[in-house]
């Protein structure tokens, strides 16, 4: 324990140098971020999007965004390698956790009071409402407020942005998607709500879902590995992932469908998005990868990735 604390005290100045008002004492005191789900004990539960009656308490099940997508990137670089922003070797990276509606539509930026994205994308809602850019402290400071150094460490290794700081990406994902997920509503936390509990819980939920689908390992287990010499077919990718998840995810490709770039795993959720059971489903969106042409799953440049293997 003494060794762990000594290491933590060494790391704290690095993590808090840009965060005014924080002290080592506050970071060592880790408050809980649990929503108050007592009312859910008396609610009939079913998988999201599969209910036959109206869900009375939307804190108990993601509503209407019950088609949940756990999304990942296969990026070849970050554009910020010189600043130390690298990709995790032997792993895809986390994109987000998205609440599509049961009909495949989706909301975005649903609560401007929790809009922390400095560069909203899109910049306007479909009705023309301008999404105000956020100009306050980074969401990284919210994580530090709750003493979640473990969370910040994991996100810095596996939730990686391209061409901009990681924290901008994290803010975007919460603001665009979590604010449209009913189980992260501030009202679900009750009168003891501490500011930004919902932000921490969303990041933890996105990571839990990400860890359920170790794409790199699932593909590698059947001999599909990044290569600059060997190509694969769409069916090879789909069959490999379906054999291990029970469903066919969405695969996204660039360069006219010939370069693999992303994967989306679809689920219905029994219970809350934070803690519930995810039932994997077939993609409802057609792949943008070619069904006939060879597909490249390129190797990354060595300078763009580093060795990381940990969990939280």
Automatic annotation (TrEMBL):
Keyword Isomerase attributed: no
Q: Which residues form the active site?
A: 95, 173, 177
SUPFAM superfamilies assigned: Ribonuclease Rh-like (SSF55895)
Q: Per its UniProt record, what InterPro entries does this chain match?
A: Ribonuclease_T2_eukaryotic, RNase_T2-like, RNase_T2-like_sf, RNase_T2_His_AS_1, RNase_T2_His_AS_2
Q: Which family does it belong to?
A: Belongs to the RNase T2 family.
**What is the residue range of the signal peptide feature?**
1-21
EC number(s) from the headed UniProt entry: 4.6.1.19
Write out the GO biological process terms: RNA catabolic process
Q: Which Pfam families match?
A: Ribonuclease_T2
What GO MF annotations does this protein's record show? ribonuclease T2 activity; RNA binding
| Name the record gives this protein | ribonuclease T2
Q: Which UniProt keywords apply?
A: Disulfide bond, Signal
Top-level EC class: lyase
Keyword Disulfide bond recorded: yes
Recall the taxonomic lineage recorded for the source organism. Eukaryota, Fungi, Dikarya, Basidiomycota, Agaricomycotina
Annotated GO CC locations: extracellular region
């Amino acid at each position: 324990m003494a060794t762990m604390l000594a290491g933590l005290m060494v790391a704290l100045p690095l993590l808090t140098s840009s965060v005014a008002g924080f002290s080592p004492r506050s970071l060592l005191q880790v408050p809980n971020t649990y929503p108050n789900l007592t009312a859910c004990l008396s609610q009939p539960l079913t998988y999201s999007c599969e209910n036959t009656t109206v869900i009375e308490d939307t804190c108990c099940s993601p509503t209407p965004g019950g088609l949940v997508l756990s999304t990942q990137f296969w990026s070849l670089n970050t554009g910020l390698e010189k600043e130390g922003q690298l990709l995790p070797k032997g792993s895809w990276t986390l994109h987000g956790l998205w609440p599509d509606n049961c009909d495949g539509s989706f909301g975005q930026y649903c609560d401007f009071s929790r809009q922390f994205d400095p560069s909203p994308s899109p910049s306007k809602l479909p009705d023309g409402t301008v999404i105000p850019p956020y100009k306050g402290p980074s969401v990284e400071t919210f994580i530090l407020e709750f003493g979640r150094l473990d969370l910040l460490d994991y996100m810095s290794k596996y939730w990686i942005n391209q061409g901009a700081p990681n924290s901008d990406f994290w803010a975007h994902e919460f603001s665009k998607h979590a604010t449209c997920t009913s189980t992260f509503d501030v009202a679900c936390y009750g009168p003891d709500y501490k500011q930004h509990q919902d932000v921490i819980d969303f990041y933890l939920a996105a990571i839990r879902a990400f860890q359920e689908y170790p794409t790199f390992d699932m593909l590698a287990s059947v001999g599909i590995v990044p290569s600059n010499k060997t190509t694969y077919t769409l069916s090879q990718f789909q069959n490999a992932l379906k054999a291990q998840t029970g469903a066919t995810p969405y695969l996204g490709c660039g360069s006219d469908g010939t370069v693999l770039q992303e994967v989306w795993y679809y689920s219905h959720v029994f219970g809350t998005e934070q803690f519930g059971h995810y039932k994997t489903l077939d993609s409802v969106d057609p792949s943008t990868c070619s069904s006939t042409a060879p597909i490249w799953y390129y190797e990354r440049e060595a300078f763009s990735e580093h060795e990381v293997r940990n969990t939280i």
